[in-house]
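Protein modeling request. Please complete all fields; requests missing the sequence field cannot be processed.
Requester role: graduate student
Desired output: 3D structure, token encoding
Chains: 1
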Amino acid sequence: MWGKLLGVCFGFMFGRWVGAIFGFWLGHLFDKSLKQDFDKVGGFQGFFKGDDLHQRQALFFSSCFAVMGHIAKSNGRVSEIHIKAASLFMDEMGLHGEERQEAQNAFRAGKESDFELKQAVQDFKEVFSRRYDLLQLFLEIQIQMAFSDGHLAPQEIKLLKRVSQLLGVSNTHFNFILKRYQAEFKFRQQRAQQDGEHRYRAAQANTGISKEQALAVLGLAESANEKEVKRAYRKLMAQHHPDKLVSQGLPQHMMEVAKKKSQEIQAAYEFLK
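Delivered output (273 residues):
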């Protein structure tokens, strides 16, 4: 609709009624083929709401660590494993000095008894509502924190489901993301044991990496055919493309997180090939 309306207005300004007709046609093409991509970067709201990239990145950063802290304390106390996982996560991001202190402060704020999870996630959702890939990555990072000790406690699962609901993620898709991450975690552990040029062949022979596990990383069942594998791979790679996510509001420091997820997806796909 917006494409047609603007096309007619600008067309009439420059070419009267002939220009208006031409503008309507161009607007129709815009509405039909470019609307989805336009919405991903915020649509017209991006022009009129003063949407600032740095503000979005700061919100993603603080919200991410605060919710991580809240989930880490879901069982009453933060375990040494969760503290180590948070520290390693900061190391991966290359956080030092004031930036690391800000992350630690946000993590501690999330552990406080008066931390309002609902309000924090809703505020996050309001800013990133049109950027579904970032909402999903946010949820994946929370799952990663909760799963840092190799298993999920009932209270952790309950909180993760709550976060996914507040983000607008359906229960079915939450279970899909959770299952895929668990497969990715195991796949990464087994791949880490392998060195050298023939990593994937050796992994299959020596550590039990299977076709089923690699398919699970892509969110597929063992019955998936080659076409379905390629489609899932391309979709996941697009969702986790670091440059695209940074342009939508992912902090530069968290680019490494997206890169690692892309590498695991790539590794699973290469293994299947």
